[in-house]
Structure formats: C-alpha cells, structure tokens
Amino acid sequence: MVTPARVVIGLCLSAPFVAMLWVGSYARTDPAFIGIPFFYWYQMLWVLVSTALTVVAYKLWQRDQRARAAARGGARR
C-alpha cells in the first residue's frame, strides 16, 4: 500500500544515490571551502545529509508501522 509517508521515505533514501551518481553536478574544484576543493567537500557534506535523511526515513517508517498496527488492532475489536 502506497502512502504519502512511504513516498517521502523512498525520496529520503534515494536522494543521496541520485546526488552521488550525478557526477557532472559536482565534478569541479570551485568553490573551495577552507582550501578543500568542491569535489571533496560536496561528497563529505552528503555523508551528513544522508545520515539525516536516513534518520528521517526511519522515524517515518516507525510512525507508519505504529499507525498500521493500531488500525489492525482497532479493526479486530
């Protein structure tokens, strides 16, 4: 069953893959950040962003599962 929460979960989990596979968007040296070329700091930034998106996806999944369990429990009574 596709729900809005599951769509958001899918987007959260697929965004890092799309960002890293689209190499043309970050295959350059400028702008540098504290002397680090863009190519490197962009990838390191995505490590943090990916972590945050995975946490969001996990929390949404937990909420979705609790709602489904509550709906099943309410239907049985």
Write a structural description:
This protein has 77 residues and is mainly alpha-helical. The protein has a domain of 39 residues. Helix content is 74%, strand content 0%. Helix 1 packs antiparallel against helix 2. The two termini are 23 Å apart. The mean pLDDT is 91.
Describe the secondary structure blueprint for this structure:
Layout: H1 4-21, H2 38-76
Helix pairs in contact: 1-2
Brief overview, please?
By secondary structure, the protein is mostly helical. The protein has two helices and no strands.
Comma- or semicolon-separated keywords:
single chain, 77 residues, 0% strand
Principal-axis shape equals elongated
Number of helical runs?
Answer: 2
Average per-residue pLDDT, rounded, comes to: 91
Terminal Cα span: 23 Å
Please tally the β strands and state the result.
Answer: 0
Proportion of residues in helical segments: over 70%
Q: What is the succession of H and E elements? A: HH
Query: What percentage of amino acids are in beta strands?
Result: under 5%
- Main β-sheet: number of strands, strand sense, barrel status? none
Q: Label the structural class.
A: mainly alpha
Show unreliable segments: none
Gyration radius from CA atoms, angstroms: 18 Å
Transmembrane segments: 7-27, 39-58
Pfam family, one: DUF3311
InterPro entries: DUF3311
Keywords: Membrane, Transmembrane, Transmembrane helix
